[in-house]
């Protein structure tokens, strides 16, 4: 077996190739040295107990707001990746709506440097347009040359259809993917929650489902026209899920993600005017929640992405119509997916690990648990119960809508390039 620095003993390995009872040995160089039942520990090797646990490729988040540069009071790369590692993630795609926006090679390099010593790998996304202003294309090729594979103006959609067509054609020629925040700004301006029964009761201006669905339909049409792939961020409505389902059946190169809050919460949660439930796109109806769950179950939606969006306490304590939208997600996503989705562990891990890794073009993560592969792994205890305590989360912010909720299922150990960065649900550095 050769030199072994780490042994994950007693677990059940789950990856895209299937499920089998196996130990996993990790070499000092951070690669997997052996996979098989009853591997003998070598002298000096660290042995981590995985009895009763699932050993899987590390989770990959397509949609994390690390806030740095510019929003360090809410989150930093260090605090955000600590939360990610505790949640079982070994890689996150960092959204580019920072200050300044990630719309140049210089800012890409800055984020990459900030992530160099982090507790999970950080892959910056670049913007589609300069300053996310929706008028001029960003230097996509320049950022792609630094390894950026996903581009988005997340927080706003690219409203100009002609510009979006050009961006898709350009991105396709470079082999990178555009990810769209689907929202018609003319329909969503001045809104703070879903338009429906509850917005009417509460007197809060609501955003109609059509605001999302119009851009979903447009981008599907543009993908069909150009042949370029498009990834649709945080789908939240039944209509959006149906549009994507039909597009996939037709062979359009579209992928999609959903956030945990869009399959666990409805707009009724806003009844108390608590801004912790304000998010963008907004919480929708029970019908929409059921549709998102169905989309995750039948393969219409390819990935669960957290849309981890930290905000300082004082910002979230403002009035509902003044508070910024967003929720924490990295430490709770796995437990919520296991609890709320009527899916096997294997299907949940596909949605959280290897399928998002493929969309993001991240080859070192989400791959098979096999000899020679980078040891980017998570060990999940499906029976672990824990109660969400905002003060105990690793984020600099506290804006979780799940405070006080007891979840079953948690990352026990997280291994990054062979280094155990989380042991027994505690960060090691």
Compile the SSE list and pairings.
Elements: E1 6-9, E2 12-15, E3 18-21, E4 23-26, E5 32-36, E6 46-49, E7 54-57, E8 59-64, H1 77-86, E9 89-94, H2 105-114, E10 121-124, H3 140-144, E11 150-151, H4 161-174, E12 177-180, H5 185-188, E13 193-194, H6 197-202, E14 206-207, H7 209-226, E15 230-232, H8 238-250, E16 254-258, H9 261-264, H10 286-298, E17 303-304, H11 313-316, H12 333-340, H13 345-360, E18 377-387, E19 406-416, E20 419-423, E21 426-427
Parallel strand pairs: 1-6, 2-7, 8-9, 9-10, 11-12, 12-15, 13-14, 15-16, 16-17
Antiparallel strand pairs: 1-4, 2-3, 4-5, 7-18, 18-19, 19-20, 20-21
Helix pairs in contact: 4-7, 7-8, 8-10
Describe the structure.
The protein is α/β, with parallel strands linked by helices and about 425 residues long. The chain folds into two domains: about 110 residues, Urease, subunit C, domain 1; about 300 residues, Metal-dependent hydrolases (TIM Barrel), CATH 3.20.20. Helix 4 packs across helix 7 and helix 8 runs parallel beside helix 10. The protein is globular, with a radius of gyration of 21 Å. The two termini are about 30 Å apart. About 55% of the residues are buried. The model has no long low-confidence stretch (mean pLDDT about 95).
